[in-house]
Amino acid sequence: MTSMEPDLREVMIPSADIQAKVRELGEAVTRDYAGERPLLVGILRGGVVFLSDLMRAVDLPCEIDFMDISSYGAGTSSSGVVRILKDLEEDITGRHVLIVEDIVDTGLTLSYLNRALLARKPASLEICALLTKPSRRKVPIEVKYLGFEVPDEFVVGYGLDYAGAYRNLPDIGVLKPEVFGGAEE
Ligand code: PRP
Ligand code: MN
Ligand code: MG
């Protein structure tokens, strides 16, 4: 029980289930990239909690880097026009790159990232996402390493925010409507 828990209508995925899934995904990555030195790319800011747990579940000499991107104008999930706020520090040419994200919603973020990073000619490029909301998809995205499929609810915790808050909640939960002013998306 955390002090944020009373704001939740329900805990959708308890911390213990997330941690078990992270171990499973880490083992799959460890197997698939055996003998390589993959570069895990966390997408700011939602991806950082998952990345920090996942990297410790990968038993390989991996590296990490970060990107921050933003949609132009209003309607972050509808415009599909994206710009890079912070680029990678590393040159990924010839590298095995694994993008680490908290959630795939419309798919626009990852679709843009895929195109942008493939243009830099990595040896391979795959996606690891903890959550997916298939019902919200606008563009198809191939997620090689996936944690959980979730319904179209406003989920927070484990990196996912509402107005910047709740990212440090260890569980993934659904906010009570009164917490976000009763407004539906
Ligand atoms: C959220 C989430 C994903 C993206 C998914 O990030 O963390 O990165 O949206 O949405 P999409 O599939 O519709 O593109 P957000 O832009 O809220 O930034 P944040 O990670 O800093 O919270
Ligand atoms: Mn994000
Ligand atoms: Mg957000």
Output the number of helix runs: 3
Q: What pattern of helices and strands is seen along the backbone? A: EHEHEEEHEEEE
Main beta sheet, described? 6 strands, mixed
CATH top-level class: Alpha Beta
Terminal residue distance: 27 Å
The oligomeric state of the chains shown is single chain
How many beta-strand runs? Answer: 9
Attached small molecules? 1-O-pyrophosphono-5-O-phosphono-alpha-D-ribofuranose, manganese (II) ion, magnesium ion
Instruction: Give the strand line-up of the largest sheet.
Output: 4-3-2-5-6-7
Structural class estimated from helices and strands = alpha/beta
Provide mean pLDDT, rounded: 94
What low-confidence regions span 5 or more consecutive residues with pLDDT below 50?
none
Helix content: 10-25%
Shape, per Cα inertia axes:
globular
Strand content: 25-35%
